Structure prediction request, 312 residues.
Amino acid sequence: MAPKAAEKRQDTAKYRKARRKRQRARRMRRMEAVLPGNVRVERIALPRIRRPAFSPGAWTGNVRQLAGSGWHWSKLFSLLLFAVAAAAVFRLHWDARWFVSDESIEFVNLGYLERADLAPELSIRDWSIFWLQPDDVREQIMRHPYVADAGVRIRLPNQVTVTVEEVQPTALWVTREGTLWLLDDGTALTMRSRSDAAGGEERTDAEGKPLPQIIDVNRDAQTPGKSAIDPEVLDSALTLLAALPQLQELRFNQGVGLNFALPDGKTYVYWGDGHDIDAKLANLDAGQQLLSRGEAAGTVIDVRYVERPFIQ
Prediction:
């Protein structure tokens, strides 16, 4: 009975398959009858999915791929390169020879400054040489008030060379508290001594010429709130000294401004501010002629007013 039942099931399956095929064909004919004559409905081929046959050998190959292809000379070489790179990184970042120390920092072109003056400005000790940037080191050293400019050179393994350009005073500011250096912008600094100044305070410029003096006992020309002289007073004084190179010192007070004694030591001049310098020089010359000819008597020539000199 079993073979007959199996044959019957096969016949039933074939019948059902043929019936489904006829039904699809009828539906297609009905659709084609409704659509225009030049339109055809193509059958869509659906993909067939087949189950892969089980093969023990295939699974074994996949496991081998996951496990790796074994040791090869290229893998050994790559591993060696990785080990060398790791050792190099460790050495560069942990070996003390690559870190900056006090002994590896050098300052050059120093005059009146010393290493002890500049070293505290740098916060680079114990830093790796690979972490340093010359601009950052320069910014630190430029904070020192006596440094006008600086250049920084970094070299392996841990050398830092700082070339310093020191500020140079343009005049001396003589006050009751002491004598100070004056820079171009009016900044006042404590005087320093150069290595060739026999231990004394430096009172000459970079060329060895005596610095002009502005005697201001009461600091009347001081910029409020700053250790500096009024830049306008300094500019006026330097302009006057350039016009009268025989002068070595000027005085300043709140009442008359700039004033000075002529080289003869007998006549004093009230100059005032730094304006109208040509007119004041002409009035000074006219006042001296009046005194020399005996046409006027006095010990002070006041040229603060440009109309004419006043002698008193």
In short: Residues 171-311 form a domain with the Rossmann fold fold (CATH 3.40.50). The mean pLDDT is 83. The two ends are 157 Å apart (CA to CA).
